[in-house]
């Protein structure tokens, strides 16, 4: 279980140079922490009271809703975001449930940020029952990350590869086996060009980049399921057409209310999927993924690309 002292909510900053700001934040939160400690001093109850979850990108939208539902069921939830103010607000919101909540600030567009998140998770807990790779971006314009990678690819694809690999040992310690849930999309592309994974040959658009990243997430999940230690299950899903900021920005349309978007929560908690792994779910049903995700050699090739670009090997 998380090793942070007492029941105090913690906020972890991505940049060491911000340590002084971190200390000021802890002091400024003292009155909130006292109130929260009082509320959480009673024994945590709920069907997930002995579970620990990490939800990346959980300061808004479906991620925040999923984190809230997990906390309501008594789980310990590690909330993540890239801005301190957003993480602070999300922790307060999610912490209204029965569970314990910790906050981590990390920018997943860089390998440094992804590794920092993992470092903090390893500091906060000695096991993880479920990792939800929910964080994602939809970028209107082409730009590079700090590592020189196409930004959407860096956040949506490479970061989950690194985070999952570094946290596999924690997932392996979960009683009954840990779970990995990779958030994909029905808008995933049905084809790919390995020579243009980061639009090196041009053709960039917000939709093309996002759709490609979601295909690669499904492919990553398929190969992960073959490589993960025994007992760890790995599934990807389309979370539904949900009225989020991303949906409105990219498609100019609404969807079901965020409070009704419970498919991620389902894959993370349901006994119905205990033995399911390597699958792609849509509306809680196993669904045939885009053709490249059924091509074992293509999935292995993607894995080699991710290994080379990140400098990280699961072996």
From TrEMBL:
Alphabetized GO MF terms: oxidoreductase activity
Region forming the signal peptide: 1-21
Pfam families linked to this entry: adh_short (PF00106)
Keywords: Oxidoreductase, Signal
Xref: SUPFAM superfamilies: NAD(P)-binding Rossmann-fold domains
Source organism, top-level taxon: Eukaryota
Homology family: Belongs to the short-chain dehydrogenases/reductases (SDR) family.
Protein's recorded name: Oxidoreductase, short chain dehydrogenase/reductase family
Upper lineage: Eukaryota, Sar, Stramenopiles, Ochrophyta, PX clade
